[in-house]
Amino acid sequence: MGEITVTGPEAAAFLSYALVGNIATVGNGRARYTMIVQEDGGIVDDLIVYRLGETEYMVVANAGNAQIVLDALTARVGGFDAEVRDDRDAYALLAVQGPESPAIMKAVTDADLDGLKYYAGLPGTVAGVPALIARTGYTGEDGFELFVAPGHAEQLWRALTDAGAPARADPLRPLLPGHAAPGGGHAAVRARADDGAHPVRRGPGPGRQVREGGRLRRP
Question: Which of 10, 84, 126, 192 is surrounded by the fewest CB atoms within 10 Å?
Answer without folding.
Answer: 192
